[in-house]
Amino acid sequence: MADFNTAFDVTMKAEGGYVNDPDDPGGETYKGIARSRNPKWSGWTNIDLLKNTINFPKNLEKDADLQQKIRDLYEANYWDKIRGDHIVDQDIAESIFDFAVNAGPRTSAKLAQMTVNVKADGVIGPATLEKINADDKRAFLAVFALAKIGRYVNICENRRESRKYFFGWVRRTLEGL
User: Fold this and answer.
1) CATH no. for residue 99?
2) Torsions phi, psi of 38, nearest 5?
3) Which residues does 96 contact at the CB level (< 8 Å), separation at least 6?
4) Minimal CB count within 10 Å: which of 27, 48, 96, 102?
5) From the first residue on, what is the mean pLDDT of each consecutive set of 10 residues in the chain (177 residues)?
């Protein structure tokens, strides 16, 4: 079965650190956690306190409590939602998890479901898991990557400000192959 800690470490390399990009609909973000989408996350208290200290935002990495809150949020809100512990192949689990972090667990689940030709309801259940675990790894990863890129194209067509992220999203997708 796939391992959360390994998937988390891979995704954190892609997520980066603290950003407050006015063009990003997520607004203030730390390690992929957008304040606008997670306003009640307790990690924002840590971040707000550290904003008034020397070396912000570099000092965020040294806050062990904050780093644990990040890990806990990703495990509960993303890994568990995509049922990562039940996916046999680590690379497939990492790809679905990473896209869940980037686009939301329901969107990632729907694309994974379309990839294995099951009803795309956005919830990975037993039927989806059975198909994912039986699918050819290379075929799954290739088709899933194309679906992700297609979604990014659609986002950029509908929101011009997001075009600056397109090549980063594509690079992230292709690095998972």
Assistant:
1) 1.20.141.10
2) -135, 55
3) 82, 84, 87, 108, 109, 112, 124, 132, 144
4) 48
5) 97 90 87 93 97 94 97 98 98 97 95 97 98 97 95 89 81 81
Query: Per residue in 46-60, is it b (16+ CB within 10 Å) or e — as a string?
Result: bbeebeeeeeeeeeb
CA distance 45 to 117: 43
Displacement of CA 2 from its chain's centroid (Å): 16
Residue 174's pLDDT is: 85
Where do runs of H (alpha helix) occur along 58-136? Answer: 64-74, 90-103, 105-115, 126-134
Question: What is the C-alpha separation between 4 and 11, in angstroms, rounded?
Answer: 10
Q: Indicate the number of domains in the chain.
A: 1
Expressed as residue numbers, the domain containing 22 is 4-175
What local confidence, expressed as pLDDT, does residue 165 receive? 77
- Rounded to 5°, the CA angle 105-14-111 comes to 30
3-state helix, strand, coil in the chain (%, to 5): 65, 5, 30
pTM: 0.92
| 73/26 Cα distance (integer angstroms) | 16
Query: Within 13 A of 56's CA, how many CA atoms are on the CB side?
Result: 12
* Chain position carrying tokens 């075009």: 163
